[in-house]
């Protein structure tokens, strides 16, 4: 039975354990790709410490900064957390970290892993977007019906364009009543050549 095993003591006394987890939090937040390499046991213990700290960073107040600094003891880590990381994870309601197992260590056969911030792994984010575009049977039927719907819409658009063009042409053609009246002047009549009178006999 695993009575009184809620906390993994990691073979250390509390002061040593708390200092180690604080340093690991700082390393995770300050690393360029937001990822550190450690054992699975330490990563699981670290996740319980770092996730509440990241949640506190969503509210940028003096009090929350003091509480985070109390845990991390690093001004650089607090600045990075509140300025950059909190902006990137603002929409996520929890689960900021991911543990990826990488096999066992050669010396003591300890199980090793990466622990990283979820929103900083661009490859995983791309894969999720690609997987989200997968089809179901229902969407397939909709896609099959789509060309007919598109054809109808294009026909409607073409009719609407024809009507608009006809209206434009009508507007351009001016009604004869609106044209200015021009008085026609009589052209000078050409002199008519008189026929020679026949001499009466």
UniProtKB/TrEMBL annotation:
SUPFAM superfamilies hit by this protein: Prokaryotic ribosomal protein L17 (SSF64263)
**Single GO term (MF):** structural constituent of ribosome
What InterPro entries does its record include? Answer: Ribosomal_bL17, Ribosomal_bL17_CS, Ribosomal_bL17_sf
Going by the entry's taxonomy, the superkingdom of the source organism is recorded as Bacteria
Gene3D superfamilies reported in the protein's UniProt record: Ribosomal protein L17 (3.90.1030.10)
Q: Which GO terms are recorded in the biological process aspect for this UniProt protein?
A: translation
Keyword Ribosomal protein in the entry? The reply is yes
Compositional bias annotation for Basic and acidic residues: 141-168
Mark out the compositionally biased spans (Basic residues).
131-140
Enumerate the residue ranges of region (Disordered). 130-201
Keyword annotations for this protein?
A: Ribonucleoprotein, Ribosomal protein
Where does the record place Low complexity bias?
Answer: 172-193
- GO-annotated cellular components: cytosolic large ribosomal subunit
Q: Which PROSITE patterns does the record associate with it?
A: RIBOSOMAL_L17 (PS01167)
Complex and partners? Part of the 50S ribosomal subunit. Contacts protein L32.
PANTHER family per UniProt: LARGE RIBOSOMAL SUBUNIT PROTEIN BL17M, RIBOSOMAL PROTEIN L17
Family of this protein:
Belongs to the bacterial ribosomal protein bL17 family.
UniProt protein name: Large ribosomal subunit protein bL17
Native organism? Dysgonomonas mossii DSM 22836
């Amino acid at each position: 039975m695993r009575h009184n095993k809620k906390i993994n003591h990691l073979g250390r006394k509390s002061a040593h354990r708390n200092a180690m987890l604080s340093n690991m939090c700082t390393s995770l937040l300050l690393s360029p790709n937001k990822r550190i390499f450690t054992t699975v046991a330490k990563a699981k213990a670290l996740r319980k410490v770092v996730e509440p700290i990241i949640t506190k960073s969503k509210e940028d107040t003096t009090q929350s900064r003091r509480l985070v600094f109390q845990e991390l003891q690093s001004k650089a880590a607090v600045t990075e957390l509140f300025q950059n990381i909190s902006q990137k994870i603002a929409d996520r309601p929890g689960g900021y970290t991911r543990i990826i197992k990488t096999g066992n260590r050669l010396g003591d056969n300890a199980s090793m892993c990466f622990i990283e911030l979820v929103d900083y792994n661009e490859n995983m984010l791309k894969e999720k977007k690609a997987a989200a575009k997968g089809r179901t049977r229902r969407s397939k039927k909709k896609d099959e019906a789509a060309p007919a719907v598109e054809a109808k819409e294009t026909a409607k658009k073409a009719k609407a364009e024809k009507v608009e063009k006809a209206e434009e042409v009508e507007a351009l053609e001016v009604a004869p009543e609106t044209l200015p009246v021009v008085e026609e002047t009589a052209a000078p009549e050409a002199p008519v050549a008189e026929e020679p009178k026949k001499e009466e006999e």
